[in-house]
Amino acid sequence: MSQTERWQVRGQPAAVNMMQGAVRSGRVAHAYLFAGPRGVGKATAARAFARALVCEAESPEERPCGRCPACVDAAAGRHVDVHVVAPEEDKLLIEQVRRMHQLALLRAVRGRRKVFIVEAIDTATPEAQNALLKVLEEPPGETVFILIAHNETPLLPTVVSRCVTVRFGRLPREVAAAILRERFGYGDAAELGAALGDGSIAQATRLSPVELLQRRDEALALLGGLLGAAPAAVPKQAEAWHKRRDELAELLEILQTWLRDVLLCQHRPDVLDNPGAWLVHFDRVEDLKSYARAMGPDQVMTALEHILAFHRRLSENVGVRPLVDVLFLDLAACGRRPAA
User: Fold this and answer.
1) What is the rounded CA–CA span in Å between residue 183 and residue 176?
2) DSSP secondary structure code for residue 274 in this structure
3) Which residues contact 317 (CB under 8 A, 6 or more apart)?
4) Is 75 helix (H, G, I), strand (E, B) or coil?
5) Which of 29, 85, 81, 87 is nearest to 51 (CA)?
6) Neighbouring residues of 55: CB distance < 8 A, sequence distance ≥ 6
7) Do the Cβ atoms of 336 and 227 come closer than 8 Å?
8) What is the rounded distance in angstroms from the CA atom of residue 87 to the CA atom of residue 194?
């Protein structure tokens, strides 16, 4: 079994190198903070690290081996010395920290170490964080705490200072797409999901593959109906979207990836020799070529700029109605509708 298969962590080489180095050297800290965006592999990495710390393989190079009883039990969530603490009703409470501390004071049952994975530590109440700080200041025995945070801002600086911080970045698009295909069955929608997820599997899986492809059809119908439309016809189209802010923003995100693919087809025709390697919408090559013929590169860039400006103004809490009206008029001016 390869290292990648044993650790089961993809797209986070720095984090894996840190964990491997700690296991091989035996210099394991008593507390780690796994910090980064939601859905990029922090929980997967924490569980892999826990398996490695309790693994019974003789050589540190082989841990986690994935075969020994300790690895099997830890992977199944039944290892007596590996504990997962999750928020209750979206908050990590002081009572949970106290229970964890009591368990941590007991000797490990099967090996040298006890491991506690604390999920969403950034949801901990101030009281829970203060209680945790006392635990981290005087860690019991060979106990290892792995704290997972999606947002470091709510954490007490004193808690962070007691931990070795391990940074997790957003997943490369090709890694996210591969995970969506292999683990979630996204098929041809994987590249689109990865692009919209911006390196986060949690964000990418907000919509099912079927819903995602349906949204794309809606986005292209919207764009096709606007490009080259007469100015007098645009206000009626815009009116239908005045109260559908979130849905419109979602469709426009898809259109950003579509127009990016159109630009690639215009500037790099060679991408069409291997569309799957370059294009988000590789399954709609003929439609992309149609848009690339019907619109000039300047028109495509202008349409992209209008969409980006809409998102920017939307985040400033500007009224939706005038923003939609202006956006639709601007897109209508960007070109004629491609031939079907």
Assistant:
1) 10
2) S
3) none
4) helix
5) 81
6) 62, 63, 64, 65, 68, 70, 71
7) yes
8) 28
- How wide is the angle at C-alpha 103 spanned by C-alphas 30 and 115, nearest 5°? 35
Closest CA to 219 of 258, 265, 262: 258
Place of tokens 């206000």: 235
Cβ atoms 18, 166 nearer than 8 A: yes
Strand order in the sheet with 143-149: 82-85, 114-118, 143-149, 31-35, 164-167
| pTM (predicted TM-score) | 0.84
Q: What is the pLDDT along the chain (340 residues), one digit of tens a residue?
A: 556 668 889 999 999 999 999 999 999 999 999 999 999 999 999 999 999 999 999 999 999 999 999 999 999 999 999 999 999 989 999 999 999 999 999 999 998 899 999 999 999 999 999 999 999 998 888 999 999 999 999 999 999 999 999 999 999 999 999 999 999 999 989 999 999 999 999 999 999 999 999 999 999 999 999 998 988 989 999 998 988 888 999 999 999 999 999 999 999 999 999 998 899 999 999 999 999 999 999 999 999 999 999 988 887 777 789 999 999 999 999 975 444 4
How far is it, in rounded angstroms, from Cα 42 to Cα 296? 43
The residue type of 231 is P
Residue 145: CB partners within 8 Å, gap ≥ 6? 30, 31, 32, 115, 116, 118, 135, 136, 139, 163
